[in-house]
Amino acid sequence: SFTPRVFSGIQPTNHLQLGNYLGAVKRFVQMQDEGMETIYCIVDLHAITASFQEPAKLRHATRELAAAYIASGLDPAKSILFNQSQVPQHTELGWIFNCVARMGWMNRMTQFKDKAGKNAEKASLGLYAYPSLMAADILAYHATHVPVGEDQKQHVELTRDIAAKFNHDYGVEFFPETQPIIEGAATRVMSLRDGTKKMSKSDPSDASRINLTDDADTIAKKIRKAKTDPEPLPETTDGLADRPEARNLVNIYAALAGTTRDAVIAEYGGAQFGTFKPALAELAVEKLAPISTEMSRLMDDPAEIDRILGEGAERAANVAEPIIAKTYDIVGF
Ligand code: ADP
Ligand code: NA
Questions:
Q1: Distance from residue 46's CA to the centre of ligand 1 (Å)
Q2: Residues placed in the known binding site for ATP
Q3: Is 122 helix (H, G, I), strand (E, B) or coil?
Q4: Per UniProt, where does L-tryptophan bind (predicted)?
């Protein structure tokens, strides 16, 4: 049996959006505060898979993501916080997993299909292999629990398949069966402009998402303009079933308030969006403004952020190094 250990990561592309915060970062902080051993990564190696990143922009986004983590309550003294490219064990194990994962498994990854679009011939090999590197990110630490949004469920399942095949092929019980932790009211926050698409930091439309860096006026305006149907909110939660936009705003409210959909409907059932949207905007500003203020304060001292990440990378490598050494030994290197 394996010691419970939490690992997760986010790509440093663009600004963090509300879905990343509610679906991932907020859970990261809760698990840290529950006293679990927590390792959180800025997955910059993944950030270059989908498209070319300007080096200066990538470096800035890396520091900004570190600032967002810390401003959201991630404490580098309690969690290991680092940058994937600084810990070579990720790519070392990633190569081995490229030789464990099967083409047929990779071909089933829906996120590759979404991100590659119609012209998969033009996608990078890295985008195709990314879930295998993600398995290495997780298993380099023997992580047992991975808090993620719903869109990452398939990749965590692939991680389990890779671990199982490695264990089977080499006749060992070396890698754990990692569990995805997908919990809460906001495991899949949808775009504010299109209730069928998930909110994403790489969506070309800035109005589709709330960024952690948005100021109060921008947040209020985006919520006011969010796409909705003309009906008031339903009197029961079941009434949200075929109303994706209304359901999304209720989910966001519940997650921000730290309550349930039922509790939000108990309070706002029957209300018009003219009432509910300003209440949601006020709540969003109340919860997000302190994070954004703290982020800018942290960003004033990039050297301090780099110091924290450097220290985190050393601590991460100390955990991963013996696991990769043992993996090499098992493989016969
Ligand atoms: P993005 O899709 O915004 O580029 P990432 O792929 O870097 O985000 O994902 C970082 C984390 O945020 C993952 O755990 C992912 O599941 C979660 N996440 C991303 N978008 C959403 C969303 N719309 N709702 C809930 N969680 C999300
Ligand atoms: Na994603």
A1: 13
A2: 11-13, 19-20, 149-151, 189, 198-202
A3: helix
A4: 137
Query: Which ligand is closest in space to the CA of residue 11?
Result: 1
d(CA 319, CA 324): 9
My answer on whether 214 and 95 are in the same domain is no
β-strand partners of 6: 38, 145
Q: Which residues, judged by CB distance below 6 Å to any ligand atom, belong to the binding site of ligand 1? A: 10-11, 13, 17, 19-20, 23-24, 148-149, 151-152, 186-189, 198-202
Write down the residue that tokens 């509910």 correspond to: 276
Residue 41 tokens, joined: 């990564």
Print burial letters for 129-146: b (CB count within 10 Å at least 16), e (below 16).
bbbbbbbbbbbbbbbbbb
Instruction: State the catalytic residues.
Output: 115, 198, 201
Give me the residue label for tokens 């490598």.
317
Residue set of the binding site for L-tryptophan: 137
**Residue 218 sits in the same domain as residue 312:** no
Q: In angstroms, rounded to a whole number, what is the distance separating the alpha carbons of residues 202 and 187?
A: 18
Ligand 1: nearest atom to the Cα of 149? 16
CA 8 to ligand 1: nearest atom = 14
Is the residue at 192 inside a domain? no
Count up the domains in the chain and report the number. Answer: 2
Nearest-angstrom CA–CA distance, 139 and 262: 37
pLDDT tens for the chain, 333 residues: list them: 899 999 999 999 989 999 999 999 999 999 999 999 999 999 999 999 999 999 999 999 999 999 999 999 999 999 999 999 999 999 999 999 999 999 999 999 999 999 998 889 999 999 999 999 999 999 999 999 999 999 999 999 999 999 999 999 999 999 999 999 999 889 999 999 999 999 999 899 999 999 999 999 999 999 999 999 999 999 999 999 999 999 999 999 999 999 999 999 999 999 999 999 999 999 999 999 999 999 999 999 999 999 999 999 999 999 999 999 999 999 999
